[in-house]
Write a structure and sequence with these properties.
576 residues; alpha/beta; Rossmann fold; 6-stranded parallel sheet; 24 helices; globular; magnesium ion binding; metal-binding
Length: 576
Amino acid sequence: MDVLQIKFKSGNDILVKHLIIEGVEYIFGYPGGSIMPIYDALHRYSEHIFHVLSRHEQGAIHAAQGYSRVSRSRKIGVCIATSGPGATNFITGLADAFTDSTPILSICGQVDSHLLGQNSFQETNIIYISFYITKWNTQIILSQDIGISLQKAFYIANHVRNAPVLIDITKDAQIKKSSFEDSQYKVEFYKIDRFCPFTNIQASPIEISYKLINSSKKPLVLVGQGIGLSNSEEELKKFIEKADLPLASTILGIDVIDGAHHLFMGMLGMHGGYANNLLTNQCDVLIAIGMRFDDRVTGVVNRFARQAKVINIAIDIFEGGNLLNCPIYVAGDCKQNLPIITEKLRKTTKKIWVDLFYKTKKCEEKIIIRDLFTEDDVLSMGELIKCINLYKNKDAILVTDVGQHQMFSSRYFYFSYIKSQVTSAGIGTMGFSIPAAIGTLFASKKRQIICIVGDGGLQMTFKEFGTFMQNKLPIKIILLNNSFLGLVRQWQEILLERRYTSSKLINPNFVQLANSYEIESKKVLEKNLFDKEVKEMLVYTNACFLEVVVEKEDNVFPMIVTGASVDDIWVDNGSG
């Protein structure tokens, strides 16, 4: 049966039909009363769309995020939930996706249209609640509006700055018949300025940019996730290599280039590299590409790169330079703009400047030795990441939660393949990794998925192990257990004189917990065994869980404390 040739009449069939037309293969969700008609349609057309049953709506939306983040074909993750608490459980994921520019479509059921505003059972005004954390949202009360609303949703989510969109559809609109007929996309009807891609290349800022770069002696390129979102990794490589430009990245941009590239200096910002942060305040031209200058990157804004001419290449004029005044703004898709600038660059070398990065990096040697080559019997997080690098697949995707393990992973995991990292950066959502790993696997079934999580984050969303079990997902989960909320404890140690208030955890038996979901599980306590266990788990064909007990009071350095400048970076507990 060719589902696209059938004349659909009910709202739920129209919705599923358009999802199929958009190429949707997977939906992550949780059923309930107000969304039941759509679930009935999903049952009828299950050969076209596979529904992944989460164990909580927040798990569904994080899975949709993971799916979108690693898709090179610009496919959008779709999640679905019922009204009331089902819809409100999407809120954290919407905020996370909005901040991290992740395109997802959230579909929420709603009470019948005649019950709206009556404080009905499981009625919430999700349109109002989600207004500031979606790029676009709409409520559908007529079945004939479903088709055009879905067309708009997919277009808006995936154009210009990627972001989440939400559709709230009343139950009667899902059921009622409609005379809707197939129609071609008519995007011109909703090319609102806020959502339109930049199609005209702006000659003036581009000319200023390449002339500044050609004349600079100390240029520095800072990149963010925009490179990956636009699939511009190769364009970036040609850009930096032609003019010998040192490159640093935000946490979301760390996988846009091979980590071993001689011009890649690593991460910048609060827990970024010493050299990257220090030399930001010595460069003469700062080229930002596909990133935003948030407080974790800039430190104190009035002491960030004041000596430099700042060029900002980004697609969203409403977000670029939101904390920093960027007088040279190249608006548009960097996949279009970078080759134009690269063509005008002089082939040159910046050996003295590049060598200064490597010389300055030596200040971190004591940190690296402490993190990767500990002499005591207790494992460090850095040692575990080093061990993973030895045995992981080259194209493995790393999914991390939020906390110290996230920072150690960003510093020491070897990203040798593009689109190899999925994490929560902008709002730092603990509990993100387990459900995000699920969506990541459905988008990249041929790649190895490694999920690293802390004991705090795991206990927020471990219920999604049920989805692992039901779908037999071969994800490798590594728990780094230090019995603390690690980053909270680190701040309490350094800034609050070790007053550890509510940061110490009394934990359950995690191995028994994972085993109860039929996940092969082990626990490593002895340092001399962890190499063997990591190697075995990474070649295991099914899902497996490895708990590694690590140093309880380890700290992540370098570190820039709140209120400090990027060149006031600490390499230990009290000094730079």
